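Homework help board

Subject: predicted structure for assignment chain

Our instructor gave us this sequence and asked us to write out the predicted structure in token form, then describe one feature. I got the tokens but I'm not sure how to describe them. Can anyone check?
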Amino acid sequence: MNILNRSLVRLPITILQSWTSRCTYVTNITDVPNFDMENPFEKERKQCILCKHNIIPDYKNVKLLSQFQSPYTGRIYGRHITGLCEHKQTEVETEIVKAQSAGLMATYMKEPVFIKSPKLFDVENPLRPHRF
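My token output:
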């Protein structure tokens, strides 16, 4: 290998250029197949439920915000449970705090009216499970 490298270094540049041009493979446009299809191996991009339906959380929409709050402790569920993107999760958290400070939402318990409302996610099976 070293002998070959030494001999190539001592050759004039014109000889090296002609040698490399003969060794490269030139493709014609007719040789390349025309693929108009999308990548079949590309994974489908996941979106959070609020981004998918283009919902902007508002502090006056207590029914929506109560879905992201524990019915027993009033704790706001994390992203690994709700499946929200980072931007929507921070929006939901700030709107919950606004609604609680405005007196529209309870801070420690969920309103009994909203306990039987349909679930947006399963609290028992988080999207990203933790070790506990």
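Reply (TA_rk): Your tokens look well-formed. For the description, you could write something like this. The radius of gyration is 30 Å. That's the kind of observation they're looking for.
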